[in-house]
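assembly run, all chains below
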Amino acid sequence: MSNNSILIIDDEVQIRKLLEITLTSNNFKTSEAINGKSGLLLAANHPPDLIILDLGLPDDDGQHILKKLREWYFSPIIILSVRNSEEDIITALDNGANDYLVKPFRTGELLARIRTALRLSQTFNNSSVFEFENIKVDLVNHLVKKNDEVIKLTITEFSLLSLLVKNEGRVLTHSFILKEIWGIGYVEQTQYLRVFIAQLRKKIEDNPNQPKYIKTESGIGYRFITSKNIIP
Amino acid sequence: MAIFYKIKSKPYQYLVSTLSIIITSFICYLISDYVGYRTIALVLLFVVSLSAILFDIIPVLIAAVLSAMIWDYFFIPPHYTFHVDNTEDALMLLMYFIIALVNGVLTAKIRKIEKLSQQKEEKLNSVKLYDTLFNSISHELRTPISTIYGSTDNLLNNQANLNDENKIKLITEIHKASERLNRLVGNLLNISRLEAGHISIKKAWCNVNELIHSVINSLEQELQKHKIKIAIDEQFPLVKLDYGLIEQVIVNIVYNASIHTVENTIIAIEVKLDHNTLVILFSDNGSGIPDAEIDKIFDKFYSIKGTSISGTGLGLSIAKGFIEAHNGKIKAFNNEFKGLSFEIKIPLTSNEIMNLNAFKNEQ
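ok done. output:
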């Protein structure tokens, strides 16, 4: 593991201590900010490889800090907050957060999310073929194979799978997927998503009721999981 | 109800009590040829008594004075003057006046006493509820805190005497205790959201199949020692529900079943659409609960007598609240497998059900 630098923006000293111990013991370099203002300053002066941002900051709302960071900072930002409502999570993801974890969190889960986010941002993947265990997706030739057998997908099913695969490990909100696949007029039409996710699972999952690849993020969206981002 | 609220408003009371006297007097005036003026006094007194039951003391006193004056002026001979000719009528007028006043004052007094005793009872009830709440919360909070405090203290100050196995045991207990605290806080937040009426339903299209399976998958660890059976049609239509709330309901009911039943107990979940009603039936073959306690299990902080299992006593009342927020109903009953069943019924409109066939031609 390289010594990636992580900036922690959180006003709670106990959380900062916990994160510092967890991250440094996993070979990350950490820096800390106790409020939004100093977080913005620190991020500008020494741009880190990743930022862990709390939403309940004493001087400014974390969502606002997130928006400000996103004006110029393009590396991953992971939200770590006690706020667990669907609205807060969706807003943060729409504001450009790469991922969202609710406190209390499992440190193993946080590390897995950090590694996924860093991997996605640092390795420029221009390959058009993705392979995960028994699934192979060829974006150029519109070909999907499961256990070396070709699976027939409709056009929509294929676009949906491509979108998920290209964002492997990342949670995609309902409205984002609907906008990308069906168009801007469809962001409220979750029925399409529900139906096509079910169809896609039937075709690519071994057991569609216990999906291994396409995970439901309740009330938020879907996440394509592979062995690379499985939590220990 | 609206009419009672109106009656309570002050100007309305003055208006109605005065008007009722004037109208009654007018009617009496029309029939005064057939009815003696002393009977009319009784009729007016009756109207004042009625006002006393409905209104505050001042409008009643005004009605009393007004009616006495009207009676004197229009009905006691000689008419159209306040002058009273004979002693008998004067005495009657005085008596009328006193009875009307006493009537008003007494009724007001009775009402005041009634109100006081009602307030006292309410206060007593709220103190009782507060005590239960307080005891349960402090117990529920202090138990895991004690575990964490004790274990960490042990780890910090008794390092030398602990072998690795015991250290891991203590750390596991700390982990479990924090999970319990987190669950309790979540439950307390939900229950206070419910009580404050802050639950707003956001219905969206749900695939119930996906919903049920995803909840069960998320409870994998908790359900390790139980057998889960899910019966739902693969082509079950999409329905409009608040995904998050219904998810919480299913989690609470299934988790409740898992902690109150022994290993290898079957927990079955069956989903049906009965006309336009979504029916979810949860059944286990555990040991059920005494019939006498069945209605109480949805009460806050209620746990079955004689059980040592520490639930928060909030899960089922939250489930009930969330179902009722969907205008639905939830009931519990002992089933034919000697276990406990929960039946949820959520009414839907035909616009909230979408058959999967509708998507047959979508590419």
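Chain A has two domains: 5-122, 129-229.

The longest strand of chain A covers residues 5-9.

not gonna interpret more than that til we talk
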